[in-house]
Amino acid sequence: MKDEKQVKVGRRDFLRKVGVGTVGAGATLATPLISSTSAQADSESNDEKRKARYKETDHVKTYYRVNRYPA
Fold this sequence. Notes:
Elements: H1 2-42, H2 46-50, H3 58-66
């Protein structure tokens, strides 16, 4: 009976540590992505920022048709 308690406590501690480690690793990986995105946005000129980016392609038209948006 004692062995079962020790295994359960050890498993719980392991899962807690894995959860904390995952959160820490995720924060570390997300930090460089945020800084590189802002650097890319700063390199656009005013004309590039204001240009039209929306294009109504076939898959966009299909999305509107399937979801019953007015044409």
